[in-house]
Task: inverse folding
């Protein structure tokens, strides 16, 4: 596979704006070792080189995040090009070293160079078809490119390879939720089957990530997205989620959603009681929406 030309890289980097990114939570064993473990004597030269390039990449991204609005675009582009060049040399010298293509693909994805990222990930997938991280990233790029149906097989493969990774179950559920119309249009899904698969995926993600409130939050919200919404089930999930909220903001967020569900169920007094406990300014807009929904129900009831 040929390298990305300096001209093409420079052109794309001129328009790059840094946004916060995190390293994936799961990777193949070889890549995890290169990122996290100390250097051992039996490491190959390719592994040692990859470890060094990844370390430089992480420092580069950390600096960019720290600089924020004061980021020097020219320096950012130059540093990114230097790291990309190091990856190019590594894969040219080691064309069968899958972890290098994985790491390079992830790096290019962080720069929003999606076509180049996909090319690297496809090469990694060809070299080693048993890396769930690669399947997940390919699914992500396809979905973002407006091809959610094509993304699904990759995502299901990631789940098959790493069934206890919550991130992949989360992505599966969100893919079905956000591309609902696309999947129904294929004729391979009914509304009921799709809804059940979506809820099951998000529930499994929340179960596997017990300490992560965000997974449980996504699961609870999903009951609004099915057709028709399952308000009674949603209420039960939100009530259980309250026990997992550990900060003032998350506790008030749960109360806000519980109030919204209660409003839908026409349990207005309970909804008002919960809304009175939502005092954080960041939730003002959503609180007003729920209050408006309650007011509309009350006004409708008063009409002769």
Result:
């Amino acid at each position: 596979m040929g390298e990305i030309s300096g001209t093409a890289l420079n052109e794309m980097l001129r328009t790059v704006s840094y946004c916060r990114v995190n390293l994936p939570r799961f990777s193949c064993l070889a890549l995890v070792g290169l990122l996290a473990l100390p250097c051992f004597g039996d490491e190959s030269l390719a592994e040692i080189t990859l470890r060094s390039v990844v370390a430089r990449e992480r420092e580069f991204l950390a600096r960019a995040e720290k600089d924020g609005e004061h980021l020097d675009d020219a320096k950012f582009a130059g540093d990114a090009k230097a790291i990309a060049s190091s990856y190019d040399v590594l894969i040219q010298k080691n064309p069968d070293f899958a972890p290098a293509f994985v790491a390079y693909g992830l790096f290019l994805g962080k720069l929003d160079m999606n076509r180049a990222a996909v090319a690297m990930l496809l090469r990694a997938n060809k070299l080693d078809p048993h890396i769930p991280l690669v399947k997940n990233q390919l699914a992500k790029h396809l979905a973002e490119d407006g091809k959610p149906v094509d993304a699904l097989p990759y995502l299901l493969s990631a789940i098959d390879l790493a069934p206890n990774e919550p991130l992949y179950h989360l992505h599966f559920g969100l893919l079905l939720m956000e591309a609902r119309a696309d999947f129904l249009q294929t004729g391979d899904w009914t509304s009921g089957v799709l809804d059940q698969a979506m809820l099951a995926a998000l529930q499994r993600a929340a179960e596997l990530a017990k300490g992560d409130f965000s997974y449980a939050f996504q699961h609870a919200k999903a009951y609004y997205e099915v057709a028709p919404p399952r308000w009674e089930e949603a209420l039960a999930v939100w009530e259980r989620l309250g026990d997992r909220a550990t900060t003032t903001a998350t506790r008030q967020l749960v109360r806000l959603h519980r109030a919204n569900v209660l409003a839908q169920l026409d349990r207005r007094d309970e909804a008002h009681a919960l809304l009175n406990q939502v005092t954080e300014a960041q939730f003002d807009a959503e609180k007003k929406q729920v209050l408006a929904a309650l007011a509309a129900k009350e006004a409708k009831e008063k009409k002769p």
User: Anything to note?
Assistant: Confidence is low (pLDDT under 50) at residues 1-40. Residues 122 and 138 are 8 Å apart (CA to CA). Residues 1-129 form one domain.
